[in-house]
Amino acid sequence: MSSRFEFLGNTDIAQYIPRASWFHHRDPRARLLSFTAIFFSVVFAPDISGLGIGFICVILIYCFASLPIKSTLKMIRRALPFIILLAIIQILFSKPSDIAITYWSILGFKITHHAVMDALILVCRFLVLISLINALVMSISTSQVTAALFHLLKPFEVIGFPVNDFTMVVQITLRYLPLVAQLAEKTAKAQAARGGDWEQKGFNPIRQAKRVLPLIVPLMVSSLRRAETMALAMESRGFNASEHRSSFYILNFSWWDVLLLIMAIAMAKLTFFISKIF
Questions:
Q1: What SS3 state is found at 11?
Q2: Can you give the C-alpha Rg of the chain in angstroms?
Q3: Residue 111 φ/ψ, nearest 5 degrees
Q4: CA-CA distance, 190 to 164, in Å (whole number)?
Q5: Local structure of residue 140 (DSSP, 8 states)
Q6: Please, are residues 40 and 268 in contact by the beta-carbon 8 Å criterion?
Q7: pLDDT tens, 178-208?
Q8: CB 130 within 8 A of CB 12
Q9: Cα 42–chain centre separation
Q10: Do 150 and 163 touch, CB atoms closer than 8 A?
């Protein structure tokens, strides 16, 4: 049974799902680089045909990794009102051109064919990105992400980049998100017990914003206090005292990982050049 205080149960971030699939057996570095290539190709895809190739890539990832689609649909449903609002703003405030076909003219706003197509591309881009990000968090664990980042950024230590500190910050951030949701849940229950307004009466964005604002200060104070305690604990235990750090898990890059990278890069390039091909 859902509750208005279940921030932790409604948090879909970092919900890693282990599977015995071909995609899960690949090296974390190959998976992370593949996701990065597809992500940037979807972000900078010039038209709807490129986004279609990105959507095919997402479907292939879900199939190869045997990932469920339910959580992705849940995230899309939550983000859909915001995406539609952005699309409406895109249609109304798009700069009209002389050669564009005008469908309607409402209160001085011209709804043109070019604006509608831009709004459609915007909606499709957000939907593909949400599906891709959800596939990333379901197929790569936080420890695998930090291990992949550590090995990929290792060459930058030559120029003095603190790779070890950066990867530890990323790992702590990813693991701290469920704790923040749990802390928000406890704070909301405490405020409701003291007479705070946490009743749900329809969809009212202003009321919801006023309801969330009192949570910001307690969350920031508690997060800063927890971060200070963690920093003191890590310093007292000699974190990063040694320049050479070993790893419990040894990453092995195989030819299957090379094949995955080649496929991801090829699909990413195809999103840019498919409009020129046809």
A1: coil
A2: 23
A3: -95, 105
A4: 38
A5: S
A6: yes
A7: 777 777 777 777 777 777 666 655 555 566 6
A8: no
A9: 13
A10: yes
- Beta bridge partners of residue 160, listed in sequence order: none
Q: Which residues contact 255 (CB under 8 A, 6 or more apart)?
A: none
Q: Is-above-0.70 flag for pTM?
A: yes
Over the chain (278 residues), what is each successive 10-residue block's mean pLDDT? 52 69 90 92 87 91 88 84 84 64 61 78 90 89 85 84 80 76 77 67 60 76 84 78 64 89 90 68
Question: Is residue 75 packed enough to be buried (19+ CB in 10 Å), middle (13-18) or exposed (0-12)?
Answer: middle
- Residue 82 CA from chain centroid, whole number: 16
Question: C-alpha 112: how far from its chain's center?
Answer: 32
What is the predicted pLDDT for the residue at 259?
Answer: 93
The residue whose two tokens read 């939907």 is 127
Q: Which helix (H) or strand (E) holds 79?
A: helix 70-92
Q: How far is CA 84 from the centre of its chain?
A: 19
Q: What is the DSSP secondary-structure string of 199-261? A: ---S--HHHHHHHHHHHHHHHHHHHHHHHHHHHHHHHHTTTT-SSS---SSPP---HHHHHHH
H helix or E strand, kind and range, residue 66: none
pLDDT tens sequence across 12-40: 554 778 888 889 889 999 999 999 999 99
108: left (phi over 0), alpha (psi -120 to 50) or beta: left
